[in-house]
Specification:
A hairpin with a 3-residue loop joins β2 and β3. The protein is built from 17 helices and 15 strands. The termini are far apart. It is an alpha+beta fold.
Amino acid sequence: MSKIPSTQLARAGVVGSTAIKMGVGRLKGKAKRRFLSEPAQLLEEEKQEDQQAELLFKAIAQLRGTAVKLAQMLGMESELLPERVRNELSKTYHRVPPLNRVLVNKIIVSELGDIPNNLFSSFYPDAFAAASLGQVHKAELPTGEQAAVKVQYPGIHVTIESDMKLLKKLSSNGVNFLPKERQPSKSVLEKIMSEISERLMEETDYNLEAENTRWFRDKLAIAGIQVPCVYDQYCSARVITTELLDGQHLDDWLATNPTQAQRNRAAQLIYDLFFTSTMRLGRVHADPNPGNFLIKENGDLALIDFGCVKKLGKRFTENMPELLYAFYVNDFDRIVSAYKKLNTTIRFGDRDDYAEMMRPFGEWMSKPIKDDSFDFKENSNYTHQAYQFMQKTHDMPGMETLDEDFIFFDRTLYGLFKIFERLEATVYMRYHWEPYWDLKR
């Protein structure tokens, strides 16, 4: 792969040309199907869907950055996209086409001061993983350790700035299409976009990712979860070198047909990780990308890629259990009070508004902790129900203020639930929250 388009004009050109190709393909397919039998029409539709998905993936791979981040999120959404498109987008987790070797050498020389073959005992020029912001190479340190060297795509921070300016402009204009009473406040919208932009820009700083990795390795301490060590002398703002952990990515692991007990354990480790890091340690690994979890041969979990980490405020971690408990007991006054403590104000009209709009949401939110465990195989449409509530929120009073920690806490939890659905796992969640509730009673 050559240079990544960085200006709004260049990136818009990639999007525009792809849209034209996809449009032409749809028209040709439609014309061709008119003369085919019904079975042949179905085959032609599948062929066209594959072609459309391939065009989309090629464009995303060329754009990188925010385009790949968006594709990673969409690749998990069975409600939004056909299976063939989702399968193609799932490549963005860790299989985006890599940069060419010359560019890789140039970046490492610029960041670490020498060519890879002089820095490492061995360095594999062909990347074994590539995604939104960078690609990863295997290497051996002079001291014998096996390492993963992540190299950032050149100019990717510029593309993020360009994309976020465009997204902010679109979101600012888009909200005007809603009736006035349904519009979220401008401050809430700006806060959401600002938070996303800040986290994406932080991900381009590999020194910060190295710091996050060291923090999780030092603090997490959960049996069965491994975090790589960082080799500081081979790190910079655009290159990070860590211990090479073994294990299979989630999709590859699922292809081996693991037992139900193995699926349950993998999901439980992921949820234990989420709860411990957020509610006890005050930080969330806020990128629920399946490519960030490796399942080891013994069933343990290896956690990688600490570029997107959000520090949670004490106000949030102290009051979030109270909000969940208020939903659990269906207490209107307690819910309103908990939101206020979380610096989030909802314009409830009255208790009737609450009963119609908010209570069903609260029942959905607290459903996984009603019993000791929650079966995502039996409740395979759990995250799909979230879309129904999102649609209903168009008719409920809007938010005046929003605690910024909600944005990444909710996004991460939703993404993990999508993973649990794919695992068809049973997860124990209630026991984590009960000690906090006992203190509130």
